Amino acid sequence: MTTTRLESFSDGVLAVAITLLVLDLNVPHSDLAHALRTQWPEYAAYVTSFLTVGIIWINHHVMIGRLRAVDHAVMFLNLLLLMSVVVIPFSTNLMAEYLRARTGEHLAAAVYGGSLLAMGLSFGAMHRYILLGRHDLLAVELPIAQRRRIFARAVSGVTPYVVATAAAPLSPYLTLGITFAVAVFYALPAASTAG
Amino acid sequence: MTTTRLESFSDGVLAVAITLLVLDLNVPHSDLAHALRTQWPEYAAYVTSFLTVGIIWINHHVMIGRLRAVDHAVMFLNLLLLMSVVVIPFSTNLMAEYLRARTGEHLAAAVYGGSLLAMGLSFGAMHRYILLGRHDLLAVELPIAQRRRIFARAVSGVTPYVVATAAAPLSPYLTLGITFAVAVFYALPAASTAG
Amino acid sequence: MTTTRLESFSDGVLAVAITLLVLDLNVPHSDLAHALRTQWPEYAAYVTSFLTVGIIWINHHVMIGRLRAVDHAVMFLNLLLLMSVVVIPFSTNLMAEYLRARTGEHLAAAVYGGSLLAMGLSFGAMHRYILLGRHDLLAVELPIAQRRRIFARAVSGVTPYVVATAAAPLSPYLTLGITFAVAVFYALPAASTAG
Amino acid sequence: MTTTRLESFSDGVLAVAITLLVLDLNVPHSDLAHALRTQWPEYAAYVTSFLTVGIIWINHHVMIGRLRAVDHAVMFLNLLLLMSVVVIPFSTNLMAEYLRARTGEHLAAAVYGGSLLAMGLSFGAMHRYILLGRHDLLAVELPIAQRRRIFARAVSGVTPYVVATAAAPLSPYLTLGITFAVAVFYALPAASTAG
């Protein structure tokens, strides 16, 4: 299978997943002014997840753009990555609902952090396979030092999600704050892409 | 990243967002004839948002079509633009529900007008960056006077959304009327595109 | 704008709309065996709408495939067509719900027939503009007789939807039956496309 | 119609269908820890359906990649295939809900197995038409023995779904287990594709 095919299907899934995040925004059925004020975790979670999926999309292209062909393992790892991304509208909704209900919010934030962590780990696994395993699939051969550097940078991108998930039992707002900060940091033009 | 890539992902998000607007149309569970008559703000809002997103799509292509390449800032501004577009099915639903409930409809209309305004401002920011900032990204170099004219036209397209949002405390139907008129005006073949 | 651009955006909208039809299938919360038997109008409506949108997709490509370029009017008419297609998951759901509730089903069937009729009329308007109005947009010039023949065939495809809508006050099942028959007739390989 | 066109529309439908599976994951409104433990059939069904649709996507490309052109019958069979795929988010949800409710779960599992079986049969019908019927549509002519071998392999892929559906009256968990095992088996890099 060509990389074009893989990219276009992945683009489709990412585009639908990022747009389905809007379904997490609930139209309140009570006093609107009050609802809009108390719904802020919903908006923060929406922005965080939207930027995060957007960054995944950018990095996904950087990663696939390095390849000249894909094998079955790349497709399988890519499916795992997409499966973890598609879960994000659910975990975002879960955290927002429980933060608002002020019950079970520690566990809900851990699930949210964990879903971003799972996404990061799938990404890392795909990087590892491509850069350190089947580097004959690369369009342009890269020296081992550079491949290790790219892989290390991808792995380091996972660290904040470990911290965010671990912080959930302390404070679910800390989880939201860390993941929000990571999303903004990578989205801002100043930061180089993590791909 | 090539412009093709950016366009195809943006197309995907816009296509999903425009189609998700159908979820704002509720199947009533009471007397159908009565419901269909009283649901008209829902239909008006649906048509307004559908045409508005359709016009964004057309203008987005005109804008991206001017570029030969994109940098990280363009991708970030594009993500902001898509984030504001993806919110539209939510803000449309919000306004329609509160107009029907005849409570909180002033605030709901302001949120709707504000979401279109945010979209217009993201669009303006992207135009500003491309036309006045990094005009070396343009596929064909344009004289500064022409670039300023295109930017001014894009900015002027934001004005009605300022008015529509400001009109919400007076009358939510005025907000709906203005945004509907803007959508029809730009959609009609006679009007030149605002891109 | 190139036809490729228009086709790929329209493909996206049609693909999302056809898939959103699955949301019209409700998971019952009562005795499953009984529910599956009484839900048959839902399944019939799902199959009808799925095949209908599928046929629109095929005919849309045949129509756009004839063009060498598109102007603003074609884009506007295309937006109208897409707007009528995107409504179909809603009108399908509406008819299915009211058929099951055995109340208001005549009006609901008229809305369903009317939504397919609106789609057919948008299609006809687009055909008329392309074939009889701006035929200089055609990739290959066609003699006026052939253009009239193609247009007449497209218009004749609207007739059953007029009948189906008119039949709703008599029997909503007749509306469903006619639209189902039309969908199967055009889908079957034997029938030539109506494009 | 070119195969590119057919592939890109099918890709769109498959990408939306696979992403809509996330809507089957419900945010519980009770004690979260308890809900997450008892919701496991939902997660198992999500993973099963996600991998299954992912494998369909891979095999679909292998199948279409063999063609140089498509006729109306291929498009019709492809529509049937997509119609069965689009139903999967519904049948997945149905099984998960009834497994959790511990009532009607035998019938719900049979519906789920049956929906995967319908998908496999549509796939088989498309293979049969292409490989044994209109093999002049193939881009590269294949000897009859090889065409029969590919078809036999596709048919054999249907067998586990027959077993899974037949097992539903015995145990719905057996249905889930078999379909899960099939999905993992084909997804794992070791297994060759069934296309």
List keywords for this structure.
homotetramer; 195 residues; mainly alpha; elongated
Structural description of this entry:
Four copies of one chain form a homotetramer. The first copy, chain A, has 195 residues and is mainly alpha-helical. The first copy, chain A, has one domain (3-187). Chain A is 75% helix and 0% strand. Chain A is built from nine helices and no strands. The first copy, chain A, has helices at residues 3-20, 32-38, 40-65, 72-86, 88-101, 105-133, 144-156, 159-166, 172-187. Chain A is elongated, with a radius of gyration of 18 Å. The mean pLDDT of chain A is 91. Chain A binds chain B through residues 7-8, 11-12, 14-16, 18-23, 25, 27, 29, 31-33, 36, 47, 50-51, 54, 57-58, 61, 187-189, 193, and chain B through 1, 5, 8-9, 12-13, 15-17, 20, 23, 71-73, 75-76, 79, 82-83, 86-87, 89-90, 93-94, 97-98, 103-104, 107-108, 111.
What's the arrangement of secondary structure elements?
Four copies of one chain form a homotetramer.
Chain A: H1 3-20, H2 32-38, H3 40-65, H4 72-86, H5 88-101, H6 105-133, H7 144-156, H8 159-166, H9 172-187
Q: How would you summarize this macromolecular structure in one to three sentences?
A:
The structure is a homotetramer of 195-residue chains. Chain A has 195 residues and is an all-alpha fold. Chain A has helices at 3-20, 32-38, 40-65, 72-86, 88-101, 105-133, 144-156, 159-166, 172-187.
